Amino acid sequence: MTKRVLNVVTNVGHYDDPSHTTGLWLSELTHAWRVFEEHGYEQTLVSPAGGAVPLEPRALKFPNYDRTAKAWRADPENMALL
């Protein structure tokens, strides 16, 4: 039997104030994705509204922007999932 994981990520790009941006903390996804991948899980990535997944700007800076997040952003196939 195939082991599967459904990864659900946000579509929310800002708080009540549109100038206060937010989004997916990429490393939260990439850390889990790597562990599940290493254990042979088939993974699917979805979002509640479908479509584009915004990235949290603060998550793309040190110290949150780590090796797994950088590798994900450098991979066009992974970025297409978002």
Helix content: 25-40%
The count of β-strands is 2
Task: Please indicate the percent range of residues in DSSP E strands (runs of 2 or more).
Answer: 5-15%
Give the neighbour order of strands across the main sheet.
Answer: 1-2
Largest sheet entry: 2 strands, parallel
Q: SSE order in H/E notation?
A: EHEHH
Summarize the SSE layout with pairings.
Layout lengths: L3 E5 L17 H13 L3 E5 L20 H8 L1 H6 L1
Task: Describe it.
By secondary structure, the protein is an alpha+beta fold. Helix content is 33%, strand content 12%. Strand 1, helix 1 and strand 2 (42-46) form a beta-alpha-beta unit. The chain is globular, with a radius of gyration of 13 Å.
List keywords for this structure.
single chain, 82 residues, alpha+beta, two-stranded parallel ribbon, 3 helices, 33% helix
In brief, what are we looking at here?
The protein has helices at residues 26-38, 67-74, 76-81; strands at 4-8, 42-46.
